[in-house]
Design goal:
The chain is built from 1 helix and 54 strands. By secondary structure, it is mostly beta strands. The chain has a 6-stranded antiparallel beta sheet with strand order 6-53-52-51-50-10.
């Protein structure tokens, strides 16, 4: 995938714009109309594979640069004949730019996961991706923009995805076949061989349940599987809602399950150290026998080391998603649009904001703020943001035209999947990438080079009267 950024200027107010939003400069930045004309209408291309090129000729840089809010972000001062950086510069794109991923999918995207390189795997209810056959699962290369099918895919919905430390993709959903092999509701895919395999245990391909809703790996590489209702594996295991699978010995383990109305686990997640499992769903009790979490209505945690179920405060009604913050705070989508935070130290659930409908997915960005997707239309249409420090919910541009089902953050980019076909009034079929990257500039006073993300990108020269000019080709 490539993205072209257009540079333009408004000479009446002396502002320089990158895609109309990023950079505002001081009145002394433009030395001459001729020099400026050589600078504008050029393009920064291939931003996403870290190859930026554009020509600059005799472009004068003043002593300070402002961001879009008018704040000084770069200030230069003279020191023994060199110019040095006084402030760290971050020119934030305050309005994330939506980018369509080719022609997208012809059906809903329900889940996403990224491997350790450049590939994002997407699952859902679709048969084509960017025009190629792809049955309910597909791979997207973020570097090249190339879509790839995974063999013959799945014969029904892919609801959830997880990747283990070896790069094996585990897939859950409502299917009964994966890559042409019998595989009931769960299977695995090896990207190195392009082969699908059922999870065979006790002569059973997969598990007997109506739907696998969620998958996640703990610190040891064991897989936890959240399901709708009953789970049966041979005659030895008959449980509900949650079960554990250990790939290294190919064995399933009953960890107590859940009970009560629906007995369903919709989502699983883990503490930062992966030693505590959190589950959300529709149930009244987690665990069984002497290992039961009291008052665990729809929400519970499981100490993996101690093999112990624990209630999370007083529980709540109908929880459908969990996100874990950078400080181990757990964020919970529940109660018809209410978002809660759970403090594992104090064992307290606190309502932090209410949306006007369900949030289907939550992620935490690098600043500890929440990005939410769902069925809500206020404050944003189907996608929004919650600033944890200011306790403010805000729209994400003009939003989507239909539900958001899944979110993923990768290197300052937010990927969203759902049932939508337009994003901020541009065509984007069921998947979109929001560019939220910022430009981080610094000055090397010894070499007189401006650096972007610590890479030399603009060589600067000084005139006799100490004006700064940039020259040569920008390369990152």
């Amino acid at each position: 995938m490539s993205k072209k950024f257009s540079l333009t200027t408004n000479s009446s107010v002396n502002k320089l714009y990158v895609d109309n939003a990023i950079l505002q400069v001081t009145t002394n930045m433009i030395e001459s109309t001729t020099a400026m004309k050589s600078f504008i209408n050029t393009q920064i291309s291939d931003f996403f594979n870290s190859k930026l090129y554009y020509e600059v000729n005799n472009f004068k840089l003043s002593n300070s640069v402002l961001d879009v809010n008018g704040n000084t972000t770069l200030s230069l001062s003279k020191n023994t004949g060199n110019y040095i950086l006084n402030n760290n510069t971050k020119m934030n794109n305050s309005s994330p730019t939506p980018l369509a991923l080719g022609t997208g999918l012809n059906g809903s995207c329900l889940c996403m996961v990224k491997d350790s390189t450049v590939n994002i795997y997407m699952g859902g209810n679709f048969t084509t991706a960017n025009g190629i056959p792809a049955n309910n699962i597909v791979k997207y290369n973020t570097l090249t923009g190339v879509w790839s099918s995974l063999g013959t895919g799945l014969n029904a919905e892919c609801s959830c995805l997880a990747i283990n430390a070896d790069g094996i993709i585990y897939v859950g959903g409502q299917f009964s076949s994966a890559g042409g092999n019998t595989a009931n509701k769960i299977a695995k895919y090896d990207p190195t061989t392009n082969l699908w395999s059922p999870i065979i245990s006790n002569t059973q391909n997969g598990i007997q349940t109506s739907r696998v809703n969620s998958l996640g790996f703990d610190y040891e590489g064991s897989l936890y599987v959240g399901t709708n209702g009953n789970i049966k594996i041979s005659n030895n295991i008959d449980t509900h809602g949650i079960i554990k699978y250990v790939p290294r010995n190919n064995e399933w383990y009953d960890i107590g399950g859940v009970a009560g109305i629906f007995s369903t686990v919709i989502h699983v997640n883990f503490s930062i150290n992966k030693k505590t499992l959190y589950i959300a769903g529709v149930f009244n009790i987690a665990g069984k026998g002497t290992n039961v979490a009291a008052n665990s209505t729809c929400l519970a945690k499981y100490d993996i080391i101690e093999n112990k179920w624990i209630a999370m405060d007083k529980g709540m009604s109908w929880c459908n998603y969990l996100a874990v913050g950078i400080d181990d705070t757990v964020y919970i989508s529940s109660d018809w649009g209410v978002i809660y935070s759970y403090n594992p130290i104090t064992d307290k659930n606190t309502a932090i904001h209410g949306f006007n409908a369900w949030s289907n997915c939550l992620i935490v960005d690098d600043n500890g703020n929440l990005i939410l997707g769902g069925n809500f239309t206020l404050p944003g249409k189907y996608i929004g943001k919650y600033d944890v420090k200011s306790k403010t919910a805000m729209a994400f541009n003009t939003g989507l035209n239909n539900s958001c089902h899944c979110l993923l953050i990768d290197n300052k980019r937010i990927y969203a999947g759902g049932s939508f076909t337009t994003v901020d009034n541009i065509s984007a079929n069921r998947v979109v990438c929001y560019d939220t990257q910022y430009i981080n500039l610094s000055i090397d006073g010894l070499t007189n080079k401006i650096k972007m993300f610590s890479n030399d990108c603009i060589e600067i020269i000084k005139s006799e009267n100490d004006d700064i000019y940039v020259t040569n080709i920008l390369k990152l």
